[in-house]
Amino acid sequence: MTILLGSIADDYTGASDLANTLTKNGLRTVQTVGIPDPSLVLPDVDAVVVSMKIRSVAAAEAVAAATEAERWLRKCGATHVLYKVCSTFDSTDAGNIGPVTEALNIAAGGGTVLVTPAFPETGRTVYLGHLFVGGQPLNESPLKDHPLNPMHDANLVRVMARQSRGAVDIVDLATVSAGAGAVKARLEALRAAGATAAIADAICEPDLETLGEVALQTPVSTGASGLGLGLARALTRSGRVSSTSAATAGAMRPVGGLAAIVAGSCSSATLRQLDVAERSLPVLRLNPEKLLAGPEEIYAAISWAGDRISAGPVVVAASASPQTVSRLQSQYGRDASGHAIETATSIIAEELMTRGVRRLVIAGGETAGAAVDRLAIPAFLIGLEIAPGVPVLRTVGNKQGDMLLALKSGNFGGEDFFTAALAMMH
Ligand SMILES: Nc1ncnc2c1ncn2[C@@H]1O[C@H](COP(=O)(O)OP(=O)(O)OP(=O)(O)O)[C@@H](O)[C@H]1O
Ligand SMILES: O=C(O)[C@@H](O)C(=O)CO
């Protein structure tokens, strides 16, 4: 397999978001779960997105995992590797966007890495280094209440600098609007001045096309799906992509079986989607305190779902409001409560699969990562888009047979997302 583009995604929902964007923009793409075992037969593709669960782990662990994935992607032929991070730049002062970007840059020989989380299709834009989410500065958006990485600063030059050893600078919108030549000249000047990363402004797709064209001439970039769009369009324009594929049709073939939704995302979008789902589907709201106290709440959830699932799809949700989340966190600690709830939702997902679920929607990046790992799914083909950033996925090499999944990033999807997803997964 010789690929044109490699990507390392810092969570699984983000990986499927990027894989969806690359597919929509003409690249045959596969999403692997970690570095695949050599025995796994992957289709011939232009791009591979390696999903990792490294957004919220210790920086050293994230760096080790990402650099190993980078070596594997280079061996597969990737001349450019995109580190896919969240379009809301989810991270803390300890990392992991800065440390991983620097490690990948050093592995590739140094230079100034272009960094932009802009993804205009979902309302993420960057202007003068500041990230806006649906028109609100990042620190005023719902991301200020994120359970694992509350974002309190919209100035990404500052955010990235706090996580980096090297200097971080900016490529402003005026430069991006002036075209690829101007961006390249700016990057060369920044490199000479010793900056290791540059936050690039982008407010619309033509900006991302310019950035993608320039990034493709460098070995590494860091960004969200918008930069993926720019890279994919630059590759197709270059004539290096042999054929566009109708692979999505194969990915959409029906799998039958039962259907379920498991949610661990506490984003405002997911909370609203759960309220709307409750109008037409049975929804079990897990009690987070009981989940932390012992396995009884998990057994009760499995029994509740088991009683209903043969009659139609069920929803099991740990998701709670910011106030409830912060109460739990102050009692048990942020990482401990997050981890315990992810373990619980992944056990519930596994039990649902054992009981015949073959169509599964999971809401939340960390939640999805824990569940997909527990289900031991090795890779995914990319099907049709349910909502911007969320495709239908078809398992590759799954021991239990083919399944369809949707891994929904916390903030993505319209209010009827869950029923819309089920309507596309047969
Ligand atoms: N009731 C709760 N109280 C505290 N933490 C919770 C609760 N329910 C879920 N969690 C934890 O909150 C975290 C939510 O993160 P997750 O990445 O799954 O969702 P998200 O951040 O909304 O999605 P994304 O990363 O895709 O944007 C998980 O660690 C989950 O276990
Ligand atoms: O970029 C995004 O917003 C998503 O793909 C994501 O990474 C959320 O976890």
TrEMBL record:
Keywords: ATP-binding, Carbohydrate metabolism, Kinase, Nucleotide-binding, Transferase. Gene3D superfamilies: Four-carbon acid sugar kinase, nucleotide binding domain, Putative sugar-binding, N-terminal domain. The keyword Cell inner membrane does not apply. It is an enzyme of class 2 (transferase). Coiled coil: none annotated. It catalyses: 3-dehydro-D-erythronate + ATP = 3-dehydro-4-O-phospho-D-erythronate + ADP + H(+); 3-dehydro-L-erythronate + ATP = 3-dehydro-4-O-phospho-L-erythronate + ADP + H(+). One of its GO terms (molecular function) is ATP binding. Its EC number is 2.7.1.217. Residues 260-418 form the Four-carbon acid sugar kinase nucleotide binding domain. InterPro entries: 4-carb_acid_sugar_kinase_N, 4-carb_acid_sugar_kinase_N_sf, NBD_C, NBD_C_sf, OtnK. Belongs to the four-carbon acid sugar kinase family. Catalyzes the ATP-dependent phosphorylation of 3-oxo-tetronate to 3-oxo-tetronate 4-phosphate. This is 3-oxo-tetronate kinase.
